[in-house]
Amino acid sequence: MNEERKRFFLSLFFPAIFLLIIWFVKIIEISLNLDLAYLGIYPLKSKGLIGILTAPLVHADFSHLIANSTPVFILSVGLFYFYNKIAFPVFFLTYFITNIWIWFGARYAYHIGASGLVYGLASFLFFSGIFRNHIRLMAISLLVVFLYGGMIWGILPIQPKISWESHLMGAVAGLVLAVYYKGQGPKRKLYSWEIEEETDDENPENEYWKIDSTNNPND
């Protein structure tokens, strides 16, 4: 097994575990005839604090769960494959920062579902590729736009029964983390002429030598 294939299979592991967890929660909820909405985030209420940990694991119905399952899996795999060295902190910071902001700033209602995480991961992958000026990662940014560009409407208060606050705060969290981690993780390949330019900039004596060498003291 070559390194790329091994890396790909490793990038599937955690996203698959997370996907199994959210499906397991829904199956248990249905099997035991429970309503786990109380595990969502209820802003500015102590009863809603538990949702900071549990809200993304709970979904209103199977349609809600299915709608979030594919993007959260694909985007998580993209994160763990292309940003494997910083994938865990980015994933969990996106998870908790988004949920904390929801608790502080969303409407008074129970906010459930992994859509805030989806928006956070999409935002991170999009902006991180642009900030790094990395051709391969910028291609991922374009792919995110192609697959999930329509998500932009989800950050607007168009549908009252949808937590647009989760979407907006997830997107902002992803942007903030893309800025914070832009110096860590995959690096853009430097070409020979760029390395030479950097060497000249770091060694100004070389530039003086070039200038002096062109002067003829006999002129």
Which key features would you list for this structure?
single chain; 219 residues; mainly alpha; Rhomboid-like fold; 0% strand
Give the ordered list of helices and strands. Answer: HHHHHHHHH
Low-confidence stretches: 207-214
Structural class: mainly alpha
How far from one another are the termini?
A: 67 Å
**Tally of alpha and pi helices:** 9
Mean pLDDT: 86
Full CATH superfamily name: Rhomboid-like
Fold-level CATH name: Rhomboid-like fold
> Mind telling me which CATH architecture this is?
Up-down Bundle
Number of domains: 1
The level of helicity is 55-70%
- Rg is 23 Å
Largest sheet: none
* Number of E strands: 0
Quote the beta fraction: under 5%
Just give the CATH class: Mainly Alpha
Shape: globular
Give me the secondary-structure topology.
Layout: H1 3-31, H2 51-54, H3 62-82, H4 87-105, H5 115-132, H6 135-148, H7 164-180, H8 192-202, H9 204-213
Helix pairs in contact: 1-3, 3-4, 3-5, 3-6, 4-5, 4-7, 5-6, 5-7
Brief summary:
With 219 residues, the protein is an all-alpha fold. It has helices spanning 3-31, 51-54, 62-82, 87-105, 115-132, 135-148, 164-180, 192-202, 204-213.
Structure report:
With 219 residues, this protein is mainly alpha-helical. The protein has a single domain (3-194), classed as Up-down Bundle (Rhomboid-like fold), CATH 1.20.1540.10. Helices cover 65% and strands 0% of the residues. The protein is built from 9 helices and no strands. It has helices at residues 3-31, 51-54, 62-82, 87-105, 115-132, 135-148, 164-180, 192-202, 204-213. Helix 5 (115-132) runs antiparallel to helix 6 (135-148). The chain is globular. It starts with a helix and ends in a 6-residue tail after the last helix. The relative contact order is 0.12.
